[in-house]
Amino acid sequence: MADQLIQRFDPLFSTEASMIPPASNVDATVFAAVPLQLYIETKDKRYLDIGQQMADKQWTLPDNNNKATAKAFADNGYSWHTRLWIDDMFMITAAQAQAYRATGDNKYIDRAAKEMVMYLDSLQQPNGLFYHAPDVPFFWGRGDGWMAAGMAELLRSLPKDNEYRARIMKGYQTMMASLLKYQGESGMWHQLIDDPASWEETSATDENAEIHDNDRQYYLDRKRITGDMHGQAPVIWCATALIRKE
Predict the structure, then answer these.
(1) What superkingdom does the record give (predicted)?
(2) Domains in the chain, please, with CATH?
(3) Contacts 24+ apart (CB under 8 A), 136-141
(4) pLDDT-derived band of residue 112, with 50, 70 and 90 as boundaries?
């Protein structure tokens, strides 16, 4: 399977180079996690060049970006991709943590940790769960899953002496304790975690990951997809965690 992944990626160095997404937002830049993993496994520097460049661009404000919010975040040491949507804390963290694992350069894990603390302080509520965004006060199932996965990935590699580790661990443990209280008898969570009237679903599907003037009905109306990769991926994450443990 590793060989198949390498073979599928190889055209991105030539005939399919245009398929590598520009580092314009978190959804595009999370792609960096793939070539960085391939570098970790193969030590082929071509993969490192792609992945590291994308991870660096998450923290390098383009000269033509005149958005005041992006500049403010960049000036204060945060990613210019910052939106304060819970989705971001998997997308940003995955790229930066992988860059740290591939290079050993602390700047990548330090960036991710600082960013995570800002999201914790901005979005985590007293019950341990996370609003979708500061102005969207709903505990969206998949979105909270992004936070859970992002914190786990970060803590897996965050050095013990990192200044942000204790804060992130506290936020993670608080969330895990809260999630246990909302888990349904089937073992699943609801599309809106604290709303038992909303449907159970493995990924809490949101087709475009877009935020509008969301209300409760917005989440309830999302299409339910059988075989959604957002639900399959956590099974793969779990399997790889078990392999690492062995």
Answers:
(1) Eukaryota
(2) 2-245 (1.50.10.10)
(3) 136/211, 136/214, 138/192, 138/214, 138/216, 138/219, 139/192, 139/193, 139/194, 140/86, 140/191, 140/192, 140/193, 140/204, 140/206, 140/219, 141/189, 141/190, 141/191, 141/192, 141/193, 141/201, 141/203, 141/204
(4) very high
